[in-house]
């Protein structure tokens, strides 16, 4: 047992901190800290800064322009970024599609698509879920019919995060309707500007505009955009899931969130003293902090094993459940802390967003964040599905 | 012992429920919530015609109800339909204070639905502390001068008049020294900054810079308004608890219906036992909320210590169960519950945000402990 990071790891952490201090634009950090959503240009700006340093694709092998960080290095980078309120790296191209293409794509696909992810020429979104296929993803119906050297795609995807910015979407489509559920699915790359693609925004309960419906009507997709083999898309999708799960615990976000709650609770007054000294509030805060402390170490134990070559299985499910619950609890504390000033609706997408807001600046987005982050336990495999995975593995059924 | 509603209350509840079911549909509500005014003048007039505002006042006050159970009955239905119209502000709080203080001239117009009111009491740093009043009132001859700022005053923009608290003696958090005044919205020196609320409806910050009002605008004896405010606050908590109960019933009903319709893995998701048990827990907790609301409503006329202990118990339990119900209903729906368009969103927001008004879960836990110890 050694609970400390190695000298190299500590040096790396300082390197990351220095980089963030020098290169992270204060404007972007302020927006992230205030819980405001970034514009497309702002996301791209941050990606370009990371790319210039060679740190945009920490998880990619060097051969493809990445740096091949091990799990611990990646963790340090993510944690420091969150603490500095750096914008999140948009994951769809970098964390999801990239690894799939590297493993299953043709040489031509790798040569064409991978560099464009790094330069930001393409903005990818993820076309998995459908209205009828959520937890039961394999029941998806979007149909791709081979027609010469094209596929003709018809159907609908939904919940497509940031699809409004995207020019490309990677989709799971059904190519063999007669095969067993999982066996007739293919992995297809579709240009969103093709005739027949329509994107409709979905407004979420906090007023945010981050997800969309994507409709396909007789969309012609070049057959060369098929990744791997026809009808084997499910295998690639499962592989992608393991990559989607790095940083699944989100400890960096929780650390930053906890700091924010403490800051707010020190400023809020309750019965003539700072809220943070109120025993009931302090007890709530302490419990989350203890949970987070333990989970951060669970996370490090798993990451350490991953560095040694062990692929996390049920451990990832455990981190997904605990990580999401802790983040949601922190969001709950933050809105609680704001008291009555959590009530005003500070919708940034509405007109008049620049008008002065009632109450302290920090209060504006707290209730919205609380509601928005209910998604954490729903998407990427709901917490019920994760628990099912954990239990099945333990019970060997 | 009899937990049945009287025949009159049952009839009122039925007719209100029918009216809201027909008229306050999800589409209509979404339209109202998104509207500039944040409420519907037509619905307001119809509610007055139905006698719903009158049901919040006693006969002496010009109404035909006014008991804790009348209030609970009305607000449960309002909650069930997700109504955002300001009955709590105009009826229970500001209107109720006018009635308590025997200031009757406006009440007829209130009951008839012809005027709206707001209770301007909370301040930027008062949080949930009812005695925290920094706004000052200075009397000189026949003129009273108000200065200060009131925070998150619901329905301020639609109101013609405010019932406003100000300090005439004591220090910031003293119970003694607080007075109530009637203030017309168009008084010189008064500025409003309005904004929409996340759970529907609107509120405003009210800044008073040397606002002059006549001595006749005084509503309470100088410095003695606190017990009156506290009692009205208790009635408001009964109303808010009943409203949250109604909203929770709708949230759970939507969830149960959805679990029966939504299929994944070839079967309705309601067949998954893990979801069944969670629905069962919600149903159990709903009964708890109904009971605590009845308890608080039934003790509104008791002496202060007893009344307030039940009231704090209710607000604490409603806050706890409310969060559970909102979060579990969203979770069991999956992604669909995250959309603004789907009815649950509105109810989930109202239920959770009800904990940011009239004292939150922790505030009332502390209060319950203090009242139990004393
Ligand atoms: C904000 C947001 C962003 C998203 N972004 C994307 C995106 O970019 N791309 C994309 O493809 N998808 C995206 N998703 C979709 C997401 O992955 C799905 O919402 C998720 O898979 C759950 O599916 P569902 O919403 O259809 O719920 P359902 O699958 O219908 O589930 C409803 C409820 O039933 C439970 N349940 C289902 N099956 C079982 C079972 N066997 N046992 C016990 N309980 C069960 C669930 O846990 C849930 O509580 C996003 C979702 C959200 C909310």
What do these coordinates show?
The complex is a heterodimer of chains A (397) and B (374). Chain A contains 12 helices and 10 strands. The model of chain A has no long low-confidence stretch (mean pLDDT 93). In chain A, the strands form 3 sheets. Chain A has a 4-stranded mixed beta sheet with strand order 1-4-5-8. By secondary structure, chain A is α+β, with helices and mostly antiparallel strands. Chain B has 374 residues and is an alpha+beta fold. Helix content of chain B is 49%, strand content 16%. In chain B, the strands form 3 sheets. Chain B has a 4-stranded antiparallel beta sheet with strand order 2-3-7-6, with no helix packed on it. In chain B, a hairpin with a 2-residue loop joins strand 2 (136-140) and strand 3 (143-154). In chain B, helix 4 (68-81) runs antiparallel to helix 8 (273-298) and helix 7 runs antiparallel to helix 10. Chain B is globular, with a radius of gyration of 21 Å. Chains A and B meet through strand 9, helix 9, helix 10, helix 11 and helix 12 of A and strand 6, helix 9, helix 10 and helix 11 of B. Flavin-adenine dinucleotide (FAD) sits between chains A (126, 128-129, 134-135, 159-161, 211, 375, 378-380, 382, 384-385, 388) and B (262, 264-265, 269, 272, 274-275, 331-332, 334-335, 338).
């Amino acid at each position: 047992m050694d609970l400390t990071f190695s000298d190299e790891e500590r040096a790396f952490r300082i390197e990351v901190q220095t980089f963030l201090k020098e290169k992270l634009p204060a404007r972007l950090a302020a927006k992230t800290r205030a819980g405001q959503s970034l514009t497309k240009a702002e996301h791209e700006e941050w990606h370009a800064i990371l790319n210039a340093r060679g740190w945009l694709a920490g998880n990619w092998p060097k051969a493809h322009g990445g740096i091949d960080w091990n799990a611990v290095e990646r963790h340090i980078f993510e944690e420091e970024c969150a603490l500095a309120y750096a914008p999140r790296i948009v994951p769809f191209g970098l964390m999801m599609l990239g690894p799939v293409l590297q493993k299953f794509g043709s040489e031509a696909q790798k040569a064409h698509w991978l560099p464009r992810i790094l330069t930001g020429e393409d903005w990818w979104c993820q076309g998995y879920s459908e209205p009828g296929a959520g937890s039961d993803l394999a029941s998806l119906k979007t149909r791709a019919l081979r027609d010469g050297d094209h596929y003709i795609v018809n159907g609908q995807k939904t919940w497509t995060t940031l699809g409004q910015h995207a020019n490309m979407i990677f989709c799971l489509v059904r190519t063999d309707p007669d095969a067993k559920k999982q066996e007739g699915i293919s992995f297809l790359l579709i240009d969103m500007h093709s005739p027949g693609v329509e994107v409709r925004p979905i407004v979420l309960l906090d007023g945010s505009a981050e997800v969309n419906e994507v409709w396909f009507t007789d969309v012609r997709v070049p057959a060369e955009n098929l990744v791997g083999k026809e009808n084997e898309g499910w295998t690639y999708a499962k592989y992608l899931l393991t990559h989607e799960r790095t940083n699944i615990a989100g400890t960096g976000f929780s650390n930053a969130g906890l700091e924010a709650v403490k800051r707010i609770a020190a400023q809020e007054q309750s019965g003539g003293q700072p809220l943070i000294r109120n025993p009931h509030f302090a007890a709530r805060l302490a419990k989350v902090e203890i949970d987070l402390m333990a989970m951060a170490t669970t996370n490090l134990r798993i990451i350490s094993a991953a560095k040694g070559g062990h692929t996390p299985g049920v451990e990832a499910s455990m981190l997904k459940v605990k990580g999401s619950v802790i983040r949601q609890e922190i969001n709950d504390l933050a809105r609680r802390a704001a008291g009555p000033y959590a009530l005003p609706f500070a919708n940034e997408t509405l007109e008049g967003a620049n008008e002065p807001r009632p109450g302290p600046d920090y209060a504006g987005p707290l209730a919205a964040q609380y509601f928005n982050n209910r998604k954490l336990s729903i998407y990427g495999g709901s917490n019920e599905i994760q628990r099912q995975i954990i239990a099945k593995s333990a019970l060997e059924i | 012992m009899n937990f049945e509603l009287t025949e009159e209350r049952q009839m009122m509840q039925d007719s209100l429920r029918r009216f809201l079911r027909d008229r306050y549909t999800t589409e209509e509500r979404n339209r109202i919530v998104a509207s500039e005014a944040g409420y519907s003048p037509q619905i307001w007039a119809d509610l007055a015609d139905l006698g719903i505002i009158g049901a919040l006042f006693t006969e002496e006050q010009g109404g035909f109800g006014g008991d804790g159970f009348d209030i609970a009955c009305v607000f449960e239905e309002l909650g069930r339909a997700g109504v955002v119209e300001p009955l709590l502000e105009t009826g229970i709080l500001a209107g109720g204070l006018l009635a308590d203080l025997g200031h009757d001239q406006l009440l007829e117009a209130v009951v008839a639905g012809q005027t709206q009111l707001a209770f301007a009491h909370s301040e930027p740093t008062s949080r949930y502390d009812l005695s925290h009043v920094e706004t000052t009132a200075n009397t000189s001859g026949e003129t009273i001068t108000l200065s200060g700022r009131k925070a998150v005053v619901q329905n301020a923009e639609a109101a013609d008049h405010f019932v406003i608290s100000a300090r005439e003696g004591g220090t910031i958090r003293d119970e003694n020294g607080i007075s109530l005044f009637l203030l017309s919205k168009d008084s010189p020196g008064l500025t409003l900054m309005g904004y929409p609320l996340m759970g529907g409806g609107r509120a405003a910050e009210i800044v008073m810079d040397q606002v002059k009002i006549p001595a006749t605008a005084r509503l309470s004896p100088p410095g003695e308004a606190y017990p009156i405010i506290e009692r009205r606050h208790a009635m408001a908590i009964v109303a808010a608890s009943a409203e949250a109960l109604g909203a929770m019933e709708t949230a759970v009903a939507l969830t149960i219906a959805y679990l029966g319709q939504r299929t994944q893995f070839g079967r309705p998701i309601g067949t998954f036992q893990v979801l069944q048990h969670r629905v069962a827990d919600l149903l159990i907790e709903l009964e708890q909320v109904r009971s605590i609301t009845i308890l608080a409503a039934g003790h509104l006329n008791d002496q202060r210590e007893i009344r307030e202990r039940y009231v704090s118990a209710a607000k604490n339990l409603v806050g706890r169960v409310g969060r559970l119900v909102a979060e579990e209903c969203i979770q069991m729906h999956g992604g669909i519950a995250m959309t603004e368009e789907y009815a649950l969103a509105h109810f989930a927001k109202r239920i959770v945000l009800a904990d940011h008004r009239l004292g939150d879960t922790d505030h009332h836990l502390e209060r319950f402990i203090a009242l139990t110890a004393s």
